[in-house]
Write a structure and sequence with these properties.
Layout (H helix, E strand, L loop, with lengths): L4 H4 L1 H4 L6 E16 L8 H17 L19 E7 L13 E8 L6 H15 L7 E16 L5 H14 L2 E3 L7 E5 L12 E10 L1
Antiparallel strand pairs: 1-3, 1-4, 2-3, 2-6, 4-7, 5-7, 6-7
Helix pairs in contact: 3-4
Length: about 210
């Protein structure tokens, strides 16, 4: 059976609907950076998703081809994630979607090295006749965070975030969002196939001890 990160690491992908504190270890990701309204037609954000999944599935299916990855095991492609921020803003303003900056992410299994990533980009470029130069191999150490499962539309996230911030204040922490630590979302539902009020999203914020 293929390794499923969501099931094996529930503390990172399936938190409760009440806030909790978690220490997230260093991980490698496929990443694409961009900006603007993610809902706009042909937005940078929508384009980033296609780029990420093309590379992710090239790596997933690599065992069927000539490129053999050392330590490879079959796996379920992890869920789409995103870091979000707005310039000169301490908190996300959902009303200003044109001001969004993002890094779209898909976690990589630990066996994927930089040379395997480079191969996957070359392979995808050759097969799809498409430019994948925006995709990068990103190593990120997220550290101590507060997180919560949010059920509902993305625009309703402020209610969940308020609970998270109340929780950290009561436990001796403060928010630590800055130019290196971001508002983080992990998407467990496909908005094309799921009603907005049923969307499941892990919302995570970096924190530090007061």
């Amino acid at each position: 059976m293929a390794f499923d990160f969501k099931k094996e690491y529930k503390e990172f992908y399936m938190p409760a609907r009440k806030p909790s504190i978690v220490t997230v270890p260093k991980m490698n990701y496929l990443a694409v950076r961009g900006g603007g309204n993610p809902n706009a037609e042909n937005s940078e954000y929508k384009n980033s998703i296609g780029l990420l999944y093309s590379i992710a599935f090239t790596i997933k299916m690599s065992y069927k081809g000539a490129h053999k990855i050392d330590g490879y095991f079959e796996f379920v492609v992890p869920p789409l994630e995103g870091f979000w921020w707005q310039d000169n803003a301490a908190a996300i303003d959902n009303a200003d979607k044109n001001g969004f900056n993002f890094v779209s992410l898909i976690r990589l299994p630990d066996f994927v090295a930089k040379n395997d990533f480079d191969w996957a980009v070359q392979e995808s470029t050759k097969k799809k006749k498409q430019d994948f130069s925006k995709v990068e191999f990103l190593t990120y150490d997220e550290g101590v965070c507060v997180q919560c499962m949010h059920i509902g539309s993305y625009d309703d996230e402020p209610k969940t975030i308020a609970l998270m911030h109340e929780y950290i204040s009561a436990n001796g922490y403060e928010l630590d969002i800055n130019e290196r630590r971001y508002h983080h979302e992990i998407y467990l539902s496909d908005p094309r196939k799921c009603a907005a009020e049923k969307l499941k999203t892990v919302v995570r914020h970096p924190i530090k001890k007061i």
